[in-house]
Amino acid sequence: MAFSIALGGGSLSAAAIAERHVAAIGGYDRIHALQSISYSGIYRESGVSLEASQTYMRPYYEVVDPHLQPAILEGFDGRPWEYYAEFGVVLRTAGAPGMATTHASEFDDSLVDFTAKDEQIALVGEMTIQNRRSFDVLVTLSDGFQKHLYIDEQTYLINGIRQTAKVHAFGDRITSESVVGGYRRVAGLLFPTTFREIDLATGRELNRLTWTKIEINRPLPVALFSPPRFARTPLSALLEDLYARRNEPSYDRGRYEAFLRQHPSVNAEAGIEFIGYQILKTGVTSSAIALLAANAQDHPRSADAQFGLGRAYRVAGREQLAVAAFRHALRLNPSDARARAALQQS
């Protein structure tokens, strides 16, 4: 059922709010003339501030020089990907991480051309955001993901976003709210530059982002948005293969054992722990456990290998085995902070 809100003697539907929002940020002519956007600024999380940049190009391309560490890149070229320089691998991400990258690659905000993008919008009420009355518009993306956009009733600019998703690869889904502001006009269009995300259940700040520089319509090659090209080592080729075939636990274990026979001088411990963790993030616990158990068996004096196995057991709901692995890690390395923290959560 359509819903509308009386305002100034009339009533507004979600579609009418979207039209006013488009006009407020600059109008369709300027929006459609926009082909690329490059942002740079500062990202803050857990008391740490780091430089960040993000670049978009129509229709859906995205690449991030991420806030975590410069040796990691992520992007979207039709499919989400992540690059890890330490191990020399490119992963076509899936599960919650892949969906997060896919949703973040949206070029225009969700109220722009929503019908053409096969998205649905519905006005579901009103909210007070930053002490201002705001329309509560529920957006359903083409893949079914939903989020609330809060639209200032005076300016028709987005001043808040609420969604429910996993903030990190593991743990429960949380509902977070981002306060949006700091609008700046560039080439006749208004762009938000400040974002502060909080966990609604606890009020804890999750992160904040400030864009200090915005560049539009730079000529960009499509290759910029694809994973970097580089020569694979035997180990990096193994890790990519294990990830790609992660739904076949017996294949992963056999491929790993064959690699060890063919390359006995290569230390694969850290690489297997890394790729086991990445597989775990996609929800394929059986393959992750098979690899990490083999890794722990092959490196019986490694606290890291035991911790990796314990983490996989915990995600799979096998808590007794997880605790045993964490305790084993602490026996091997009494100063292992990760294992100690994991035991405190049990």
Structure description:
With 346 residues, the protein is an alpha+beta fold. It has 2 domains: 5-224, Lipoprotein localisation LolA/LolB/LppX (outer membrane lipoprotein receptor (LolB), chain A); 234-344, Tetratricopeptide repeat domain (Serine Threonine Protein Phosphatase 5, Tetratricopeptide repeat, Alpha Horseshoe), CATH 1.25.40.10. The chain is 33% helix and 32% strand. It has 10 helices and 17 strands. It has helices at residues 14-25, 28-33, 95-104, 234-244, 249-262, 269-281, 285-298, 303-315, 319-332, 337-344, and strands at 5-7, 10-12, 36-45, 48-57, 61-65, 72-76, 80-84, 89-91, 120-129, 132-140, 146-152, 158-165, 174-181, 184-186, 189-191, 194-199, 205-216. The strands form 3 sheets. The chain has a 13-stranded antiparallel β-sheet. Strands 1-2 form a two-stranded antiparallel ribbon. A two-stranded antiparallel sheet has the order 14-15. The termini are far apart. The model has no long low-confidence stretch (mean pLDDT 91).
